[in-house]
Amino acid sequence: MIARRSLLAGGAGLLLAGCDRIVQIPAARKILFAGEEMQRGLQRALVDRAALAPEYTVAQMSPVFRSNGTRDPGTPEYGAMVANRFADWRLGIGGLVATPLSLSLADLRALPNRRQITRHDCVEGWSAIGQWTGPMLGNVLKAAGVSERARYIVFTCADLYGGQPYYESIDLIDAFHPQTILAWALNGRPLDVAHGAPVRLRVERQLGYKHAKYLMRIDAVASLTGIGKGKGGYWEDNVDYDWYAGI
């Protein structure tokens, strides 16, 4: 996932950490972020949205799965959740749903879980292969009863930027993809803080910056208007990353 840190204004422009360093290279930026409408229309039309991302064997897993992006939200509220091992954490499921849900970590672990070994691809150019465990997002959304009016799923997180929670979104095709899961474990162990504890999104047909960490809310919405600046995600709104980052 993209390094989710505050943007630092400098004389030559934006100085970003982690994956965001690539946006300092004009040619690379032009290739990677060639325009949201073209990307949405052309790439989504050309790729098989139902196709599975490659899965790997245990022997192919990376010896180290580096943490990236926010490594600790650092707020008192999040610190309290860590201190009590997320016993009081709840994931809210709302918006355009028939039955809003409030799920504990135990609730998610008790659901049918999918285990998948997949590759995380960052726009910076590095990749890592790890094993993720968690329930399929589609099954959670089905339990909530997503309205026919919904077109997008919005994720709200515990880390803050400018005093506001980090956010990201995907469409319903990716939301109901079988490899899109609410991961609570990496390589057979519960997520640590650096990797997004207690739960992070894994949307395996998308680049790493779409994989929101530290999930707090999931909402079904009809439009991205009114979500941040309207482009569907923090980095899309503030650094012009493409909303659709399919691979």
TrEMBL record:
Residues 85-220 form the Oxidoreductase molybdopterin-binding domain. PANTHER family: BLL0505 PROTEIN, PROTEIN-METHIONINE-SULFOXIDE REDUCTASE. This is Molybdopterin-binding protein.
